[in-house]
Amino acid sequence: MFANLTSGLDFHAKALVLRADRQRILASNIANADTPGYVARDFNFRETLGQMTKTSGSELSKAGLGLTLQTSTSTTHPRHVELPAVSSNGTLSGTGALVYATQSQPSVDGNSVDLDRERASFVDNSVRYESTLRFINGQSRTILSAIQGQ
Amino acid sequence: MSMFSIFNVSGSAVSAQSQRLNVVASNLANADAVAGPDGQAYKARQVVFQTLPMGGDATAGVKVNAITESNQPFKRIHDPNHPSADADGYVNYSNVNPVEEMVNMISASRSYQNNIEVMNTAKSLLLKTLQMGQ
């Protein structure tokens, strides 16, 4: 019974860890904006989170929380490149987990960091990190008030 | 180690960029330096950045791998009355290109600011994480 209470929190905890990982990768990209030959990296958040929560997905839908994820790769534009997800064990350390960015404005030194894109992603990711935090806070407060019955 | 390594990554970038700024400053300071008795004037210096892996994943910082000297020819100006003039009456000035250095300076300062901002964002996110459940 208690698992039903905290299963929503578990989902958000995984999302938070993944957001922190992405934040770190984006910070590395920005740090290497002037390094010759550096290739920017990133990963597909939705796919990765889908793989991480695959086992607990049925539990979530059973609990009626409606948190099952749509994991199909859908691109919104024919020229979008599909990003592969990270390895199924949920860690980012597996090879091929992270993808490389192509040069948007080719430079002679072979650096593929697009600073505008990276900064936009960084801000976007930090806002989403914060919203995940708020979800966790809100849910834990709900659980607490349910326990206290006040 | 979660988001704490952002401080290492951005910190390494900030220190590399400040070294680049240092090199620009010394280049600009020596822009009008003339050659000594050996005929060798100041040569413009450039930092070479290299990616510094920081424990797996894609966490990569930056380090200054080397400082190279420019091999551009010295600026030669005919001035027979100058005390440093050679036998032909030419004075060798340093090969620093001030315009290039100014551009380099702006680029370094922007990158520096970018990384500081990244650290500020990471800091505020971590502080908010600390307040989780309160």
List keywords for this structure.
A: 150 residues, mainly alpha, two-stranded antiparallel ribbon, 3% strand, B: alpha+beta, two-stranded antiparallel sheet
Structure, explained:
The complex is a heterodimer of chains A (150) and B (134). Chain A has 150 residues and is mainly alpha-helical. Chain A contains four helices and two strands; from the N terminus they run H-E-H-H-E-H. Chain A has helices at 2-31, 45-52, 54-62, 115-148, and strands spanning 41-42, 99-100. The two termini of chain A are 20 Å apart. The model of chain A is unreliable at 57-74 and 85-91 (pLDDT under 50). Chain B is built from two helices and four strands, in the order αββββα. Chain B has helices spanning 5-29, 98-130, and strands at residues 45-53, 60-69, 75-78, 90-93. The longest helix of chain B has 33 residues, at 98-130. Chain B is elongated, with a radius of gyration of 22 Å. The chains are: A mainly alpha (150), B alpha+beta (134).
Short description:
The complex is a heterodimer of chains A (150) and B (134). Chain A is 54% helix and 3% strand.
Let me know the largest β-sheet of chain B.
2 strands, antiparallel
Helix content of chain B: 40-55%
- Please give the share of residues in helix of chain A: 40-55%
Give the overall average pLDDT of chain A.
76
Quaternary organisation: heterodimer
| Low-confidence spans of chain B | none
Break the fold down into its secondary structure elements and pairings.
The complex is a heterodimer of chains A (150) and B (134).
Chain A: H1 2-31, E1 41-42, H2 45-52, H3 54-62, E2 99-100, H4 115-148
Antiparallel strand pairs in A: 1-2
Chain B: H1 5-29, E1 45-53, E2 60-69, E3 75-78, E4 90-93, H2 98-130
Antiparallel strand pairs in B: 1-2, 3-4
Helix pairs in contact in B: 1-2
